[in-house]
Amino acid sequence: MEDQNESQLNIELSEEVAEGIYSNLAIITHSNSEFVIDFVKMMPGVPKAKVKSRIVLTPQHAKRLMKALKDNISKFEQAHGTVKDTEANSFPLNFGGPTAQA
After folding, report:
1. What's phi and psi for 67, nearest 5 deg?
2. E strands along 45-84, which residues?
3. In a domain, 48, yes or no
4. What tens-digit pLDDT sequence spans the chain (102 residues)?
5. Nearest-5° angle of CA 34, CA 39, CA 42?
6. Is the separation of the CB atoms in 36 and 30 below 8 Å?
7. Using an 8 Å Cβ cutoff, are 43 and 25 in contact?
8. CA distance 100 to 102
9. Which domain range does residue 62 map to?
10. Is residue 65 part of a domain?
11. What is the b/e burial string over 1-35, where b = at least 16 CB atoms within 10 angstroms of the residue's CB?
12. Closest CA to 25 of 11, 9, 13, 37
């Protein structure tokens, strides 16, 4: 039988990373080997927005993230009610590849 401590993953979270980064727009692009999610902070009345963080995932990890988000949103809505899906401002987000926004 495998020792339980051998199968545990020790994850370190620094104070700086624990503070988090605010994002109100995600731009998703992909190739045949990776998904790139750029988290952007847009401010009202400011025409320029900055990418605050970029995460690169394999397609397999992207699919696991999608499933985990779906599961967590479902649990959140069971506890707090339906999250209203509001349409963001419509503007072109074509960075030369397949694009979606969330």
Report:
1. -65, -40
2. 50-57
3. yes
4. 555 567 899 999 999 999 999 999 999 999 999 999 999 999 999 999 999 999 999 999 999 999 999 999 999 999 999 999 876 555 544 444 555 656
5. 150
6. yes
7. no
8. 7
9. 20-80+88-101
10. yes
11. eeeeeeeeeeeeeeeeeeeeeeeebebbbbeeeeb
12. 37
Contact 57, 67 (CB under 8 A): no
- Judge whether 44 lies within some domain: yes
Quote helix, strand, coil % in the chain, to nearest 5.
Answer: 30, 25, 45
Q: For residue 64, what are its two tokens? A: 């696991």
Contacting residues for 4 by C-beta, under 8 A, at least 6 apart: none
Provide the token pair at 101: 């926004």
For the whole model, what pTM was predicted?
Answer: 0.72
Is residue 13 assigned to a domain? Answer: no
Domain count, the chain: 1
Give the Cα separation of 28 and 93 in Å (integer).
Answer: 10
CB 23, CB 99: distance < 8 Å: no
